[in-house]
Design a protein that fits this description.
alpha/beta, Nucleotidyltransferase, domain 5, 5-stranded mixed beta sheet, two-stranded antiparallel ribbon, about 30% helix, about 25% strand
Length: about 140
Amino acid sequence: MKPVVTWALLANARHAKVLENRGPGKGLVPLEAHQWEADLPEQPRDRAGMGHSIGGPGVSAVEQADPQRKADRHFAKVVGKAVTKAFLAQEFDRLILVAGPHMLGLLRDEVEEALAPVIAGEIDKDLMAQPAKSVEAHVGEIIAV
């Protein structure tokens, strides 16, 4: 009988990786082929300032775009597409999202509807810097590791 393969996707704004579980007692194993690193955010070229109205003598403040938010959203999109592609290639059966609240929200937005039925759970903590054994304790609350 084929084991149920569960992926734990760990992510923050700079890095993402997959830890794989192939059944109870097997633990979590990092997958080298499924690790991502975000590009540095593009810095604004100009300072925020004043904009002049073409309709008269009025001026208004111009708000500066947040390059970090844009970079975070792009990174979540890249990771979401890669995980969806892996699911469609039948590389895993279940998915657990592990990320801090900000990145978890972005990942939820980016994972396609095809993955909704296979998401076994979510952990809203940034565990990227933790060793696999520590992550196992958290994931163990959702599945038998």
